Amino acid sequence: MKPGVAEEYDASSATYDSLYKEEQEVKFGFLLNRVRPGGGEEVVLDAGCGTGLLLEALSRRWGCTLVGLDSSEGMLREAKRKGTAANLVLGDIEKMPFKDGSFDIAFSVSVIQLADDPEEAIGEIRRVLKKGGRVGISYLRRAGIAVPRIRGLRVAVHDSETMKDIFLTGYRE
Ligand SMILES: C[S@@+](CC[C@H](N)C(=O)[O-])C[C@H]1O[C@@H](n2cnc3c(N)ncnc32)[C@H](O)[C@@H]1O
Questions:
Q1: Which tens digit of pLDDT belongs to each residue from 13-43?
Q2: Nearest ligand 1 atom, CA 28
Q3: Which pTM was predicted?
């Protein structure tokens, strides 16, 4: 985990939604058009869930089991305060406290550019996905990260200047 990042988000947790909700919701729409939960028994992870904006959208539209992980206590506190219907877990995306193959779907929106090693973070997402599990990841294009290639994860890459992120959508082989 990069030093100082959790503290930065702790400090901005109360204003995050008013500054970024609209911008993030456009990205969620893009991802959910490509990685659409089926509901029912599916278990869905949002890695780097922040204040729970995507989890709220997921719980409004689909009845799946939701898990959110974030390294900032402040962001998680904000998600709890809003009553986000998900299991919220404090942790590092590069070392997640979940068993291999725990999730049917994993999302991570605008997070991995903040990790120490973005490839490690995506490798962790792959590890916690079931075989055939689907994935929707985005990261800030201005971070200038080369598109990570992770063995065992088959993804299409969408580069969007207007949405400010690079999107990877696909599944675990
Ligand atoms: C730009 S915000 C995005 C939040 C949320 N995904 C959204 O779309 O609104 C980045 C989030 O990643 C979290 N984060 C940064 N580094 C992390 C790490 N190593 N492990 C877990 N979460 C991390 C931050 O605390 C913050 O909540």
A1: 999 999 999 999 999 999 999 998 887 789 9
A2: 8
A3: 0.97
